[in-house]
Structure formats: C-alpha cells, structure tokens
Amino acid sequence: MFERARMSMIGGVPMNWMVEWPGPFPIFARRGQGSKITDVDGRTYVDFCLGDTGAMFGHGPEATVRAAISQLRRGITTMLPTEDSIWVGEELARRFGLPYWQVAMTATDANRFALRMAREATGRRKILVFNGCYHGTVDEALVRLVNGRVSPREGAMPHPIDPEQTTKAIEFNDLTALEQALAPGDVAAVLMEPAMTNCGIILPVGGYLDGVRENTRRTGTVWIIDETHTWCAGPGGYTRTHGLKPDMITLGKPIAGGIPAAAFGLSQEVYDKTISNMLAETTGVNGLGGTLTGNAFALAAMRATLEHVITAKAYNHMIPLAERFNAGVEKLIHAHGLPWHTVQLGARVEYRFRTTPPRNGAEAIAAKDPLLNRYLHLYDLNRGILLTPFHNMALMCPYATRKDVDLHGKVFKESIEQILS
Ligand SMILES: Cc1ncc(COP(=O)(O)O)c(C=O)c1O
User: Fold this and answer.
1) Using a 6 Å cutoff on CB, does residue 136 contact ligand 1?
2) Is any ligand 1 atom within 6 A of the Cβ of residue 112?
3) Is the Cβ–Cβ distance between 326 and 107 less than 8 Å?
4) 281-296 tens-digit pLDDT
5) What are the distances in angstroms from CA 343 to CA 15, 300, 325, 327, 329?
C-alpha cells in the first residue's frame, strides 16, 4: 500500500507527519476501536498514541459516534447556529471559567484566532512563546531560542515575516526572563501550555504560573493558555485542576472525539475590548473563523463528547492507569540503572533520556536521542504497541486496561535488556 500511495501522495501519506513513524513505512490502519488499532494486515496494536491526543478519549467513543451519525442525517453545514452551540458555550464556560467562547476547526486555528484577538485587545503586535513550544502551524510560534535570539524552528519552511519582528521567545520556568521580555510593554499575548508537552513534559516549578499571571496582569498582556494537550490533567484542563485564571484558553484535538473542532474562550475584559470589531459589518473578513467553522456536525459531536465522554468518570479511570504505567517504567529504569526519568501529567506519561526532569526547553532538547527513540518505538511497534512517533509519550484513554499497560511494561523491559546486552 505504501508503494502505491507514494505514486500519488507526497511521501506516501495524506499528511506529512505520518512519515515519522519508525521503520521503512507507516502501518496503514483498517480500524480504530477503543484503545486498539487494527492494521490492514489484521494485526492489532495497543494504542498509546491516540492520534497524538486527537483520540485521547479512545477511538470511536459511542456517544460521539451516535450524535455524529444522527447529525449527519440532519445537515452537516448550514452557516446557521444550532442549539448544540449554546450547550457547548455554556459547558465550556462552566468547565474552564471563561465566560465567552467561539469555535474553530483545529487547535492551530484556535491559537491563530486567539493571538489576533489579543492584538486587537491590546493594540500591540508582538507575542511571547517559550523555547521548545509547539502550538500548531502558527507562524509566529514556530520558533526556537538559539543563542538568545528567536529563530525559525529547525526544519520550518520559510516564515512570511522574520520571527524576530513578531515574536519573543524565552525559557520556561524563568520569571526574570519573562519580566524583562514584558517590561517594554510591546507584547500582546503570552501563549503557553501551563506544562509544556511538546519537547517532553516540563512541569512548572512552584509559584511559576502565579508569577506569569502577575507579570501579564501588571503589563496589560493577554495570558493565553493552550490546553490542547494539558486537557489530560482533568475535565477542566490544567487550568481548572490548578485554579489558574488566564485571559484566554484554546482547546482542540479531542474536543469532538477526533472530529475536527476546536474552541477559544475569553474573559469579560478581552470580550469588551474586541467585541465591536468582531460583530462589525466586516466580520466576515476580520480574520477569524472560516466557512466550515462551527458547522452543525462538529457542534453535535462536541456536545456529545463534552457531555458523555470527557467526564470526571473517564479521568478516574485514565489517571490511575497512567500512574501504573509511570510506576512500572520508573521501576525498570531504576532496576537497570539507566540515566533516564519519567514524568506524569494526568493521563499522560513520558520517559526521557536524562536523570532529572528538564526545567525548560533547552534542557529538554539537549536530552533528545533520535536513534534511541526510533529503536524503542520500532521495538514497540513490532510487538503490538503504538507510541506517538515524535514523543516517548503514552496517553491512557478510558478504554485502556491494566493488561494494555502491563504489555507495554513487558515490552519496555525486553527492549532495554536488549540495549544493555
Ligand atoms: C499544545 C498544542 N497546541 C496546538 C496544536 C495544534 O493542533 P492541530 O495540529 O490539531 O491544529 C498542537 C499539536 O500538536 C499542540 O500540541
């Protein structure tokens, strides 16, 4: 199939990240169900990748599927609001503590729209992100900090504007750097994950996020929390689990069970400063939204997923499994004296090739070992386990079982014994 696909699809895949799976070709999926994927050769895998978080609540959650099929028969896209949208707005406000919401198609979109709104609210142009971040294909955020300067991220195709003109980048967990970067008063928004997940999991040190809130508030900078991945911490994301008070929140990936949908929320203050241009005669060209955004199908899926799938009950199953996964891997690392560590963030667990958890992007990037990574991932793949190709990260979905976790433990043990032998 891969050979045939290469004749028409760039790289033999419908989306270029799919070439990053280890081995000479990606497996082609026939079916995803619950915590498992079956490939076209009939082999079944325990899936800890879960569509890189898009299927964090399992493949084909029943309530989402039922609502989606029912809505498909009643109209997919109409350029009209449906009653489901009210339910979704109210539910997101209740969960995340921000009063106003709008829908997007992807988390990338949600971040682009949030940044645009922050610029509108502040009259400033620059944004601030963190070394090692990923917020989707948002030009200004596709950067790295290299020798103290913000630079295009390695491998990124050319930016339309030099990122030094659009972006400040600093290291995570460094309040002095944040204070200095915000002091000139030219930053519209700080866009961040409350715990970084895209160059390994990096947890905030005690008091850091309070410091971010204090500094952004003092300098009139909009604080945007991207909860796309950190939603693994609880039903109201990391924000609610840790009582944070951002000005804006962006969400994507699992919000409609994997059906393309995303959302961004704003505070009363951001709303008051942006509403006139959002609802002006020119709203269709103000740079937010798109023809299919907010379609009836996506809203029906979001409602069902929020109501029946992304529930406290689901987390009560997922998080203990993540603890079991974490404890098992940690025990093996210690038993074999490996200079590695594990980190858990709610239903997400990661192991990394350094003795202590990194405090920032620079430390996390320095600990990368692409060859070791590919070896471990291929070892897993050949023994029925899928891990996200670009991370050593495992996500537990509500359908995952102890047996799934223990299979990973067994294979992980064998793989490190092979390395050490
Ligand atoms: C934190 C975060 N935000 C946004 C995105 C972009 O999501 P999407 O590719 O669905 O637009 C990603 C993707 O990995 C992400 O990790």
Assistant:
1) yes
2) no
3) no
4) 888 889 999 999 999 9
5) 29, 35, 11, 10, 10
CA of 417 to the centre of ligand 1 (A): 34
How many angstroms does the Cα of residue 228 sit away from the middle of ligand 1?
6
**Shortest-distance Cα residue to atom 15 of ligand 1:** 135
Low-confidence ranges of the chain (pLDDT < 50): none
Binding site membership of 230 for ligand 1 (Cβ less than 6 Å)? no
Is residue 328 within 6 Å of ligand 1 at its C-beta? Answer: no
Q: Which residue is closest in CA terms to ligand 1's atom 7?
A: 107
Position 276 scores a pLDDT of 84
Looking up tokens 């419908």 gives 14
Ligand 1 neighbourhood includes 231 CB (under 6 angstroms): no
Atom of ligand 1 nearest to the CA of 133: 1
pLDDT in tens, 385-417: 999 998 889 999 999 999 999 999 999 999 999
User: What pLDDT score was predicted for residue 283?
Assistant: 87
Can you tell me which atom of ligand 1 is nearest the CA of 136? Answer: 6
Percent helix, strand and coil across the chain, each to the nearest 5: 45, 20, 40
3-state secondary structure (DSSP) of residue 115: helix
